[in-house]
Amino acid sequence: MILGIGVDIVHLPRITSLVTRRGRLPLAKRILSLKEWDEFNQRFPNEHLVIDQQVKYLGSRWCIKEAVYKALYPIHKLEWKQVTVEKDQGKPILHVHNGKAYGIKRSHVSLSHDGEYAISQVVLEG
What angle do CA 86, 38, 85 make, to 5 degrees? Predict the structure, then answer.
């Protein structure tokens, strides 16, 4: 049974603007789970290197997490850090903290980038 379907699109210059105004670390701390936070700091130890890849990383996580939120809303309202995105052979994999409590048995996620945009779709099964 499908619990929900969510989709989100992010204009990456919006993430760049947030990083420029507030810094990359405050945004990362706000939206990343502990596991993602560790990965982010390992991949990008210097805030001045590969800014576009940092924005792409943060924008992708933002996009996927928003899609998960939309898939469960209004029955459940998740917080950013309750969703962890990992990769398995390049494919994003979702882990929702206490997912079974929300009735989630399986999750499917698709993420795509095109120029200044990232788009994701999430299907949650119960």
Answer: 20
Strands 117-125 and 106-114: antiparallel
Contact yes or no for 12/59 (Cβ under 8 A): yes
pLDDT digit string (tens) for 102-121?
Answer: 999 999 999 999 999 999 99
Give me the DSSP letters along 31-61: H--HHHHHHHHHH--STTS-HHHHHHHHHHH
pLDDT at 66: 98
Tokens of residue 87, six digits: 């990769």
Could you tell me what percentage of the chain is helix, strand and coil, using 3-state DSSP and rounding each to the nearest 5?
Answer: 45, 30, 20
**């994999």: which residue's tokens?**
93
Dihedral sign for Cα atoms in the order 91, 43, 118, 34: positive
Short-list 109, 63, 66, 67, CA closest to 90: 109
Paired with 6 in beta bridges are 122
**Res. 47 pLDDT band, cuts 50 70 90:** confident
